[in-house]
Task: structure prediction
Amino acid sequence: MADQPTYEELMQQIRVLKAAAVQHEETVKALKDREKRYRLLVEESFDGIFIQKGPTIIFANQQLHHMLGYDVAELLGMDHWRVYHPEYREVTRRRAQARMRGEKVPTHYEVKLNRKDGSWFYGEIGARAIDVEGEPGVQVWVRDIHERKLAEEALRKSEQKYKAILDNIQEGYYEVDIEGNFTFFNRSMCEILGYPPDEMMGMNNRQYTDKKFAKRVYSTFNQVYTTGAPAKGFDWELIRKDGSVRIVETSVTLIRDFENRPGGFRGIARDVTREKRLEAQIQRAEKMETIGTLAGGVAHDLNNILSGLVSYPELLLLQLPEESPLRKPIETIQKSGEKAAAVVQDLLTLARRGVVVTEPVNLNDLIREYLQSPEYARVREFHPGVETEIRLEDTLLNIPGSPTHLSKTLANLISNAAEAMPAGGRIVLRTENRYIDAPLSGYDDVREGDYVVFSISDTGTGISSEDIEKIFEPFYTKKKMGRSGTGLGMAVVWGTVKDHNGYIDVKSAEGGGTTFRLYFPATREVLSETRAKVPVTSYRGKGESILVVDDVAQQRELAAEMLEQLGYRVEVVSSGEEAVEYLKNHQMDLLVLDMIMDPGWDGLDTYRKILEIHPGQKAVIASGFSESARVKEAQRLGTGSYIKKPFLMETLGMAVRRELER
Result:
């Protein structure tokens, strides 16, 4: 018989069992308390929470019931896809499938969720895989972000509206940080600086501020930062991407953050380049007019005084024998008087009282005559290292003018160019016919029209930006007085050009040479000895019909008159759109088509439309600019010759005849 436990051993076992029972009760109680706390946390959470096993919801907290509008029992057993708005079911399904495959997917994302009543709201979803009674499940958190999304949408629309308003104002609007880096700007600011938006964002103002303005600009911004007071109406020279300069009138105010700390600057920039240049031109013209009035009065008095110094020595010399010791001093007096008389003539030119425009002049003839003159020979003698190159347009139009004053203008410019190259160099003389379609901005603003352009370029020392504004003022010179000229040479050039209703443009840089361009209005009056090189019979018309398409009335009328004189039947229209409409009901043997027409279609666009109506339509292209890629494209499509404006009857007639007979 096995040994029976003793009484003490039984009591010990009973005590162990009791202790284990007590511990079990405490463990159960602890687990119930923990479950109660966790359930409280889940039920009282601000976020909706649900657990799904497969597609079925097996648990949902009170907040989710409240969000979705379902009773407590209604969500349990529901397919969880019914919770998602149809727009988001597919993307949510793809994410769930990717998660099940073990792929990395976002743990939080935004969706639309359906309520029981059919309405929806924006929610933010968070999900993670869990074990549900030994099977895979998913625990999902739902946060209501509807109000936030609506606020963001309202803010986005407000920003879009704000940006649209700013993009439609003509002035540039900009915002920069404390360091001067762009943080925001409108379309007009991009147009002022000539940069695309992606290049401008983050660009620092040092990159586009002219050096001579930099110190003043930085001082202004620093004052706004220090005092908090806005700065208004100060000029700022900006350097565009292409290197050109724009002057803007700008205002600057301080931007503060939510804690009232300085965070940057904002301002409006108005492009006043044209206004400032026009103002400077008016000031120059007024100054020259004032000086000219003074010079005219002086010249009038000097003429009376000099008449004796010039005339009497000539009479005395006629009476003196060749061996007289008085001849040399009297000849010196005579030469001095003649030089003084030449200065008086310069003063008269400056006073705008010396030029009488009476005849057609050809600049090519004047240039060739000057290059054969003793005066030019002396220039070459004094400057043996200077070479002169001429590039003259063969069919140069004439200008109405004074040969004497124009010749002196050429002489002054060539002499100055030579003196700007003490170590030698090259002078290039060029002439060309040019039709200006749109005003050109420069030292002078050149208006639209037909011009003969004379340009002279040198490879000399150049002119500084400070000096270039003063070069046409009388007696303003960098030369040594008494050794080279009177100081009136460039003033005479200015006066002569203005008396010929012309314009001057100057381009120069220190060490980079100088180019002067003189624009003279052209005339079709001919010189008495001018004869046509080609007989007119070789390009006379045979009654063919021609449509002239040009947006400038004067050009239409001029082309029509020339063609009618050559024996063509001519119609005219003022735009590409009108040409297409006209040709819908008419056929023409040839078009004379302007390339640049603004606004509306240009010559290439017009020709493309016309080819749809009349395949193979013959045409010639005309333009005041050089042959461009669009001209070549039009020729590739079927147009014939390219005619450069201003029109010459021979050039126009030959081009038309050649195209008609092709």
User: Anything to note?
Assistant: Residues 352-356, 480-487 have pLDDT under 50 and may be disordered.
